[in-house]
Amino acid sequence: MTIKFGTDGWRARVADTYTFANVRRVTQGFADYLKAHDLANKGIVIGYDQRYQSEYFAEAAAEVMAGNAISVWLTDQNTPTPVISYSAVEREAGGAINITASHNPPTDNGFKVRDPNGGAIPPEGLKEIESYIPESETSIQYIPIADAEYKKLVRRWDPNPAYIAHISKLVNIESLKQARLKILVEPMWGNAAGWFPKLLGGGNNTIWEIHAGRNPLFPEMQRPEPIRPNIDVALKKTLELGADVLLINDGDADRMGIGDENGMYIDQLRVYALLAYYLLEVRGERGPIVKTISTTAMLNKLGQMYNIPVYETGVGFKYVAPKVLETNALIGGEESGGYAFRGNVPERDGILGNLYFLDFMLKTGKTPAQLMEMVFEKIGQRYFYSRIDTRFPSEKRPTAKNQLDTTRPETLAGIPVTAINTLDGYKYELGDKGWLLIRFSGTEPIIRVYCEVTDESLIPAVLDSGLELAGLK
User: Fold this and answer.
1) Domains along the chain with CATH numbers
2) What would the pLDDT profile of 168-214 be if each residue is shown by its tens digit?
3) What is the mean pLDDT of residues 228-235?
């Protein structure tokens, strides 16, 4: 079978196409890519999440790298994606492999690759890796894991201390320990479990965790994605406990979400605006903002107010990371709740993002709901976001794409269309009323219809118009 990389690596259903044989094939392709770019001599970092058999898929990848005479630093436990990304830099490695399917359903697993900067590999690099993937196992070079460890081609190590020392330079963790906050943490059965009690415990905070064990079936949620309804149990628990804030991380901890003191979800577009405002206003930093086409217009408003450039990319960190590096951006992010920060690696970091949010609360003395009101007041408008995901077989895409390519609506839901942006999907600008975006997922057989508007009552009509355009109604 032909293996293709999506928006963020390769993901597939376990025991269907995600098999040990195919993981070895993909690893061989990445090994050949590293050799072609003179990176093989630097070694490779390999980590994994808490999904079904992830640690064994990671060992299979390590066996192939060792068979290609590429040294491996294999994490000694399930490890958050931002830690794996930082380890590529800290170890001065040629890149990293992360065995994770991130927010996908429990049936899936995945294979992410990172460059020496710890960032996503650009699209042209992913295509090159695909071209090196052998058609069968016969040309794969590998050494059994026990032999590879005996020969010291594979070394297991704890990457966490170096990462903690690193982020401690970016945010004052010691002051956060004394913040006297009541914090509920939702790691979604994933790799962030235990991290916030470890980082912020032992001081004046009260910290609870929910869904903090290992359960690859992800009970009480559809998938470990930090949006509703997956976080509804945690939002309810926030109210029951009287917590000041709910900190959410997805399954591999590169993405984040926030619930306020009232048990209300602060959506990922609003969180992006809050983090950008925190860096600009509270920390007084300056620098470009990088956003995907599916991310909030509030960032454009902040860019104008603080006289900083805002760059827009396609969806996925394979587009965001290179732009972050190119522009030395202050922050880069996407609609899925993943944000990268200057001074860190050019990759999403849900742990650091949540620490920054706590610091925002501490520095201002405000609750999450009050912080949101402060940003709306600064911008002069409220913004409301929603999204509908629909299963959409890949064989139907050509017909839907042709329809979207040829349709040029003058209005949507009675609102004039001021521009159409086809950078990634089909984005219909609605002037000061907001925008609508239709795009095919790069990781799943799904078509997504998104909107952000300045009048909440417009959401149903705008989304309906998008569904009609995509031929879904």
Assistant:
1) 10-163 (3.40.120.10), 169-379 (3.40.120.10), 384-469 (3.30.310.50)
2) 999 999 999 999 999 999 999 999 999 999 999 999 999 999 999 99
3) 97
Which amino acid, residue 341? F
- What 3 state SS string does the chain have? CCCCCECCEEEEEECCCECHHHHHHHHHHHHHHHHHCCCHHHCEEEEECCCCCHHHHHHHHHHHHHHCCCCEEEECCCCCHHHHHHHHHHCCCCCEEEECCCCCCCCEEEEEEECCCCCECCHHHHHHHHHHCCCCHHHCCCCCHHHHHHCCCEEEECCHHHHHHHHCCCCCHHHHHCCCCEEEEECCCCCCCCHHHHHHCCCCCEEEECCCCCCCCCCCCCCCCCCCCCCHHHHHHHHHHCCCEEEEECCCCCEEEEECCCCCEECHHHHHHHHHHHHHHHCCCCCCEEEECCCCCHHHHHHHHHCCCEEEECCCHHHHHHHHHHHCCCEEECCCCEEEECCCCCCCCHHHHHHHHHHHHHHHCCCHHHHHHHHHHHHCCCCEEEEEEEECCHHHHHHHHHHHHHCCCCEECCEECCEEECCCCEEEECHHHEEEEEEECCCCCEEEEEEEECCHHHHHHHHHHHHHHCCCC
What proportion of the chain, given as a percentage, has pLDDT over 70?
100
Q: What is the pLDDT of residues 126-157, one digit of tens each?
A: 999 999 999 998 999 999 999 999 999 999 99
Residues 171, 166: Cα–Cα separation, whole Å: 9
Amino acid identity for residue 383 in this structure: Y
Q: How many CA atoms lie within 13 A of 364 on its CB side?
A: 23
Distance CA 341, CA 118 (A): 13
The CA–CA distances, whole Å, from 48 to 17, 55, 125, 197, 415 equal: 19, 6, 22, 21, 46
CB-based contact 328:342 (threshold 8 Å): yes
| Residue 1 pLDDT class (50, 70, 90 cuts) | confident
Residue 337 clears pLDDT 80, i.e. is over it? yes
Strands 206-209 and 182-186: parallel
Strands 206-209 and 154-157, by their bridges, are unpaired
Q: Residue 134 is encoded by which pair of tokens?
A: 């052998």
CA distance 23 to 17: 9
71: tokens are 């040294």
Look at the pTM and tell me if it is higher than 0.90: yes
